[in-house]
Amino acid sequence: MSTPVVVAEDVSFAYDGQPVLDHVSFEVGRGEFVALVGPNGSGKSTLIRILLGLLEPDDGRAELLGSDPAHVEDRWRIGYVPQRPFLARDLPATVEEVVAAGRLARGRWWRVPGKRDRDAVQHALDYVGLGELSDRRVRELSGGQQQRVLIAKALASEPELLILDEPIAGVDAESQRLFRDALTHAVTEHEATVVLVSHELGAVADDLDRVIVLKKRVLFDGPPRALAEEGVSLGVHPEDLPFWLEGLR
After folding, report:
1. Dist. CA 85–CA 81, nearest whole Å
2. Checking DSSP bridges between strand 193-197 and strand 33-37, what pairing results, if any?
3. How far apart are CA 127 and CA 233, in angstroms?
4. % of the chain with per-residue pLDDT over 90
5. Which of 16, 70, 75, 130 has the fewest beta carbons closer than 10 A?
């Protein structure tokens, strides 16, 4: 078997003595599309920060791409879209310029972009439906479009692992559809591994390999159909998924 792309092994963490994560363990293999879900305060964002090497676990260990998260070589191999990313209202950059910044980590920052760089940027823009808006100022776009710019920026580096923390909360249906297309394309065409943290799973419910339910510890780790057998429909988020998550023990 190939080395897992993401490993959490007995990871525990507490803030001011209050446990947030309690011996969390799972692995994500190459090319898997995995959703990490749980109620507010379940430890999802803390776990992502540990996986990215931004926090040290109190106990246990994490691993990314076969290395300690804080010492992964070639950080371009990891694409990350944070929760509620910030774009300055007066940012003068165009859509293409922001997405092109995703290529910088693949080489020296002063290197003149080549054809492969330009093609990767255009490819990422097309797959989030922004190819025709590449010359627009980012500040002129809607919230959903700005979020797609940041997803395209992450895709432009052609990462081996893509981690997204609540990337489509509150965006329009069209943005969700294009978001889904971009992620499935990354998995099927580029063999990327995707870890998606979200309450909004309706857009990708039919494409997920696994769902990991977290509430300080792993309460469920399996295929979406196993949740469906328990009466949970990932595609009807407002009706049952949040209440089911909140009721977990």
Report:
1. 7
2. parallel
3. 27
4. 39
5. 16
